[in-house]
Amino acid sequence: MRHGRLLLAMAVALPILQLAAEEPPAARVIDLKASDGVLIKATYFAAARPGPGVLLLHQCNRQRKLWDGLARQLAAAGIHTLTMDLRGFGESGGTQQDKLTPQEAAKVQTESWPGDIDTAFQYLTSQQGVTPDIVGVGGASCGVNNSIQTARRHRAQVKSLVLLSGGTDLAGRRFLREANDLPELFAVAEDDEFRPTVDIMPWLFSTSTNPGKRYLHYTTGGHGADMFAVHPELRNEIVDWYVTTLVKTPGRAPAAKTTAPVPQWAEVVNQIEMPGGAARFAQRVAEARRTNPKAVLFPEQIVNSMGYEHLQEGDTKLALEILKLNAMAFPESPNVYDSLSDAYLADGQKELAQQNARKALELLPSDTADPTERRNAIRDSAQQKLNQLGEGRPK
Question: Are residues 85 and 192 in the same domain?
Answer without folding.
Answer: yes
